TrEMBL record, chains A, B:
PROSITE patterns in the cross-refs: GST_NTER
Regions crossing the membrane: none
Name of the molecule in the record: Glutathione S-transferase
SUPFAM superfamilies hit by this protein: GST C-terminal domain-like, Thioredoxin-like
């Protein structure tokens, strides 16, 4: 039985950048589960698995199909209870949702403000047209207008991670002494920024930067194998 | 054996407002533990229990003395494992620290910006002098200058809770189907604002407001027994 992970891909299959896919790639490695990656263009996603989901990641695990990074993590925790835990219990599951919504509401817009034109440039031609149209409608600005705000967005980035920075005074990971899925949630957002824009958003010695570097080293340097932009 | 909780008090002992004390009051009720409250003025705290801590809450539980709201919650979880859990496991403990630092770094400054002159006015005379001197040094502005920014601070408040608002699409409490200590962390911050400033910070129908109202009803309406300012 081959486990298949459908992932988002730009022009270069070797530079996967989706934050949601990175969360799941790290979760699968955490559970020590093998899988085959199926890089997919934005515009090809709706046709996957008979239209199962409009977004990736999608995991096919034998007869089981699961979409959405958080749902996939919950599935892995339930289906593979003998592997290292992704949540550390029911409280950890519930509070990981808060971390996810912090990441989505605070960090994702901050990454978008820095990286959106870089993301566009990494896409295949047919995806670029879809991406420009959908993102410009969503943001109410052209990609070129977003580009002019890039330096200000870089300067505004690090302060948004102040809750994580303060937490790191107490423990090396969101999960405590070792990482949990909550770490992969915020890692996914920063890895997305690193691979697409590669902006230097942290001052030297920033505890958040040190935590991110530790995450890049996890699972035999799985995150680091894709170089920064 | 009487369990003693040293709490912060202004002029009126019936209107305790400290966010950190509220976290612990809710945690003790959650664990179904009785206690006697010892309301203490700011300037009297350093003399408590032979100078055990510069801040309240301080819990005396028989021979055990614990200061700091998070440390007290950890102590209660370990000392009273048969009561309802405050963390829901090790993952919940670790991630509650992230919620605490989100509350301290994002919500506490937002409450301070609204309520600081109200807090000052609730204090006993000797505490008012201490409070003005220490807070004006910390914030680099007079209390009167802070007061002029109050309306803007009220308008800016609700958006800062967007991670919680989005999380509430998935579950009724940070703890999931039922509250955990993480709920009491953010409840403490909002209860502090409610009792000191009583500002209408939420639009009708805001999910965060609904969650706060649910928290006020917990433990036989423990939070609601102190009226809003």
């Amino acid at each position: 039985m081959t486990r298949i992970l459908y992932t988002l891909s730009g022009r270069d299959h070797e530079r996967p950048f989706s934050p949601h896919v990175w969360k799941v790639v790290m979760a699968l490695a955490h559970k020590r589960l093998d899988f085959v990656e199926r890089p997919t263009a934005f515009t090809a996603i709706p046709a996957l698995e008979n239209g199962f989901s409009k977004t990736v990641p999608i995991l096919r695990d034998g007869e089981v199909l699961v979409a959405d990074s958080f749902e996939i993590a919950l599935y892995l925790e339930q289906a593979y209870p003998d592997g290292p835990t992704l949540f550390g219990g029911e409280g950890g599951k519930a509070l990981s949702r808060f971390v996810e919504r912090f990441s989505q509401s605070t960090i994702h817009p901050a990454v978008t403000a820095i990286a959106i034109s870089d993301i566009h440039d990494m896409l295949a031609d047919e995806d670029q047209r879809y991406f420009r149209r959908s993102r410009e409608a969503l943001l109410g600005r052209t990609l070129e207008e977003m580009r002019t705000g890039r330096e200000a967005a870089i300067a505004a980035f690090a302060p948004k991670l102040e809750p994580l920075r303060q937490m790191l005074r107490y423990q090396p990971y969101l999960g405590g002494e070792a990482p949990l899925f909550a770490d992969y949630i915020l890692f996914g957002a920063l890895q997305w920024m690193r691979i697409t824009a590669g902006a230097d958003v942290f001052k030297p010695g920033d505890a958040v930067s040190d935590w991110f570097e530790r995450c890049l080293d996890l699972h035999q340097g799985l995150g680091r194998r894709v170089t920064a932009a």
